[in-house]
């Protein structure tokens, strides 16, 4: 359930739940409060959030350093705008948007700051839709929420095509791998084998869940 709350400063926030990872390896749904809804922000009720297991487990295991625990991962969300900042244009309450960043989360009980990496696995979000990074945009008509919530994955594959500078009519080779972004086109070039390596870190219980995560 999403509700609006006001703190001592009088600025509106949203309250809901987030999937929070703790340093001892526990995951739990915890009651949270968002950042204040600023003049350029929108308050969002999340309907779907997509999982990117490689990046998210890299954050939880310390391969990517987003900051200290507790931590909420997730960078692909879809939701409905519930509130608008005073300076927001181009969006309306009730619009369905996709977004990649939650500005801030803290626990409702204890006022504990949660590291957002990028914090989208939560029932509520405060997003600057025109801000830097993956702010937010309207979901096109006809695109279901579950499909829209995976918007980054095909973008990664298309970025590989762009980086390879493959144009219509140009000779190209293709290689494939697991997952949506595991297929790419590239100009013909010698093939080289790469090996995977994994580091270990005593004392980080998330390592025991890291069987499918590889860094190359």
Give a short overview.
With 216 residues, the protein is mainly beta. 12% of the residues lie in helices and 31% in strands.
Topology:
Layout: E1 3-6, E2 12-21, E3 27-34, E4 42-49, H1 53-61, E5 71-73, E6 77-84, E7 96-99, E8 105-107, E9 113-117, E10 124-127, E11 137-138, H2 145-148, H3 152-164, E12 173-176, E13 183-186
Parallel strand pairs: 5-9
Antiparallel strand pairs: 1-2, 2-3, 3-8, 4-6, 4-10, 6-7, 7-11, 8-9, 12-13
Report on the architecture of this protein.
The protein is mainly beta and 216 residues long. It has two domains: 3-152, Medium-chain alcohol dehydrogenases, catalytic domain (Quinone Oxidoreductase, Chain A, domain 1); 159-209, no CATH class. The protein is built from three helices and 13 strands, in the order E-E-E-E-H-E-E-E-E-E-E-E-H-H-E-E. The strands form three sheets. The chain has a six-stranded mixed beta sheet with strand order 1-2-3-8-9-5, with helices on one face.
Poorly predicted sequence stretches spanning 5 or more consecutive residues: 184-201, 208-216
CATH topology tier name of the largest domain: Quinone Oxidoreductase, Chain A, domain 1
Strand adjacency order, main sheet:
1-2-3-8-9-5
How many structural domains? 2
Structural class: mainly beta
Gyration radius, rounded = 19 Å
Oligomer: single chain
User: According to CATH, what is the class of the largest domain?
Assistant: Alpha Beta
Count of alpha/pi helices: 3
SSE string, helices as H and strands as E: EEEEHEEEEEEEHHEE
Count all strands and give the number. Answer: 13
Shape: globular
Full CATH superfamily name of the largest domain: Medium-chain alcohol dehydrogenases, catalytic domain
- Describe the main β-sheet briefly: 6 strands, mixed
């Amino acid at each position: 359930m999403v509700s609006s709350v006001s703190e001592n400063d009088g600025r509106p926030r949203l309250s809901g739940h987030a999937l929070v990872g703790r340093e001892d390896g526990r995951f739990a749904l915890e009651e949270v409060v968002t950042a204040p809804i600023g003049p350029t922000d929108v308050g969002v009720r999340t309907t779907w959030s997509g999982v990117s297991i490689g990046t998210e487990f890299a954050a939880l295991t310390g391969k990517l350093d987003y900051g200290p625990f507790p931590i909420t991962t997730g960078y692909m969300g879809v939701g409905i705008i519930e509130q608008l900042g005073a300076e927001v244009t181009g969006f309306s309450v009730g619009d369905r948007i996709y977004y990649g960043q939650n500005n801030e989360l803290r626990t409702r009980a204890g006022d504990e700051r949660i590291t957002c990496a990028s914090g989208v696995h939560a029932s509520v979000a405060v997003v600057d839709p025109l801000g830097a990074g993956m702010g937010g945009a309207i979901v096109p008509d006809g695109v279901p929420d579950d499909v829209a919530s995976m918007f980054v994955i095909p973008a990664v594959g298309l970025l590989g095509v762009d980086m390879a500078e493959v144009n219509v009519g140009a000779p190209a080779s293709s290689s494939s791998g697991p997952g949506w972004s595991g297929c790419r086109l590239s100009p013909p070039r010698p093939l080289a084998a790469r090996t995977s390596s994994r580091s270990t870190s005593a004392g980080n219980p998330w390592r025991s869940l890291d069987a499918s995560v590889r860094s190359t």
